[in-house]
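Chain A, query sequence.
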Amino acid sequence: EVQLVESGGGMVQPGGSLRLSCAASGFTFESVGMSWFRQAPGKGPEWVSTISKGGGNTYYSDSVKGRFTISRDNAKNRLYLQMNSLKPEDTALYYCKSSAFAERGQGTQVTVSS
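Chain A, predicted structure.
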Protein backbone atom coordinates (compact mmCIF):
# COMPACT_ATOMS: atom_id res chain seq x y z
CA GLU A 1 0.00 0.00 0.00
CA VAL A 2 1.38 3.38 -1.02
CA GLN A 3 1.65 5.70 1.97
CA LEU A 4 2.86 9.29 2.02
CA VAL A 5 3.04 11.22 5.28
CA GLU A 6 3.95 14.89 5.28
CA SER A 7 5.25 16.87 8.25
CA GLY A 8 7.02 20.10 9.08
CA GLY A 9 4.30 22.63 8.43
CA GLY A 10 3.35 25.40 10.79
CA MET A 11 2.81 29.10 11.15
CA VAL A 12 5.63 31.47 10.24
CA GLN A 13 6.04 35.18 9.68
CA PRO A 14 6.68 36.58 6.19
CA GLY A 15 10.32 36.12 5.29
CA GLY A 16 10.63 33.05 7.45
CA SER A 17 11.57 29.48 6.56
CA LEU A 18 10.16 26.00 6.96
CA ARG A 19 11.35 22.57 5.92
CA LEU A 20 8.71 20.06 4.90
CA SER A 21 9.27 16.33 4.91
CA CYS A 22 7.43 13.48 3.20
CA ALA A 23 7.92 9.92 4.41
CA ALA A 24 7.15 7.37 1.70
CA SER A 25 6.43 3.67 1.96
CA GLY A 26 4.77 0.87 0.01
CA PHE A 27 6.71 1.38 -3.21
CA THR A 28 10.27 1.55 -4.51
CA PHE A 29 10.93 5.18 -3.67
CA GLU A 30 14.22 5.45 -5.54
CA SER A 31 12.54 4.40 -8.79
CA VAL A 32 10.06 7.23 -9.16
CA GLY A 33 10.03 10.97 -9.46
CA MET A 34 8.39 12.89 -6.66
CA SER A 35 6.55 16.18 -6.48
CA TRP A 36 5.16 18.70 -4.06
CA PHE A 37 1.78 20.29 -4.61
CA ARG A 38 -0.18 22.80 -2.59
CA GLN A 39 -3.77 23.86 -2.27
CA ALA A 40 -4.86 27.16 -0.83
CA PRO A 41 -8.33 27.64 0.66
CA GLY A 42 -10.93 28.00 -2.09
CA LYS A 43 -8.44 27.22 -4.85
CA GLY A 44 -7.48 24.18 -6.89
CA PRO A 45 -4.26 22.20 -6.51
CA GLU A 46 -1.08 23.92 -7.65
CA TRP A 47 2.08 22.13 -8.67
CA VAL A 48 5.10 23.42 -6.73
CA SER A 49 8.14 21.32 -7.56
CA THR A 50 9.35 17.98 -8.95
CA ILE A 51 12.53 16.00 -8.48
CA SER A 52 13.73 13.11 -10.63
CA LYS A 53 14.17 9.64 -9.18
CA GLY A 54 17.90 10.08 -8.73
CA GLY A 55 17.63 13.66 -7.54
CA GLY A 56 19.71 15.05 -10.36
CA ASN A 57 16.94 17.06 -11.98
CA THR A 58 14.67 19.51 -10.21
CA TYR A 59 11.87 21.69 -11.47
CA TYR A 60 9.99 24.58 -9.87
CA SER A 61 6.95 26.67 -10.54
CA ASP A 62 7.68 30.29 -11.28
CA SER A 63 5.97 31.31 -8.04
CA VAL A 64 8.54 29.50 -5.87
CA LYS A 65 11.66 29.43 -8.04
CA GLY A 66 14.65 30.82 -6.19
CA ARG A 67 12.96 30.49 -2.78
CA PHE A 68 12.17 26.78 -2.45
CA THR A 69 14.50 23.80 -2.80
CA ILE A 70 13.33 20.24 -3.33
CA SER A 71 15.53 17.32 -2.34
CA ARG A 72 15.31 13.65 -1.52
CA ASP A 73 17.12 10.98 0.50
CA ASN A 74 16.54 7.66 -1.23
CA ALA A 75 18.23 5.74 1.59
CA LYS A 76 15.59 7.06 3.99
CA ASN A 77 12.64 7.12 1.55
CA ARG A 78 12.22 10.80 2.30
CA LEU A 79 11.31 13.83 0.21
CA TYR A 80 11.97 17.36 1.41
CA LEU A 81 11.00 20.91 0.57
CA GLN A 82 13.07 23.73 2.01
CA MET A 83 11.04 26.91 1.87
CA ASN A 84 12.75 30.25 2.39
CA SER A 85 11.58 33.85 2.09
CA LEU A 86 8.02 32.74 2.68
CA LYS A 87 5.19 35.02 1.59
CA PRO A 88 1.54 35.17 2.69
CA GLU A 89 0.56 33.78 -0.71
CA ASP A 90 2.48 30.60 0.11
CA THR A 91 -0.19 29.78 2.69
CA ALA A 92 -1.67 26.41 1.71
CA LEU A 93 -1.92 22.73 2.47
CA TYR A 94 1.23 21.12 1.06
CA TYR A 95 1.32 17.48 0.01
CA CYS A 96 3.65 15.12 -1.79
CA LYS A 97 2.90 12.72 -4.59
CA SER A 98 4.84 10.24 -6.67
CA SER A 99 4.87 10.28 -10.45
CA ALA A 100 3.75 6.65 -10.61
CA PHE A 101 0.78 6.44 -8.28
CA ALA A 102 -2.43 8.36 -7.72
CA GLU A 103 -2.17 8.37 -3.94
CA ARG A 104 -1.23 11.55 -2.12
CA GLY A 105 -0.58 12.30 1.50
CA GLN A 106 -2.92 14.08 3.92
CA GLY A 107 -0.76 17.15 3.69
CA THR A 108 0.79 19.58 6.13
CA GLN A 109 -0.54 23.10 6.65
CA VAL A 110 1.72 26.08 6.04
CA THR A 111 0.47 29.47 7.18
CA VAL A 112 2.47 32.62 6.52
CA SER A 113 1.17 35.56 8.47
CA SER A 114 2.34 38.45 10.57
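Strands lie at 3-7, 10-12, 18-25, 34-39, 46-51, 58-60, 68-73, 78-83, 92-98, 108-112. Residues 4 and 105 are 5 Å apart (CA to CA).
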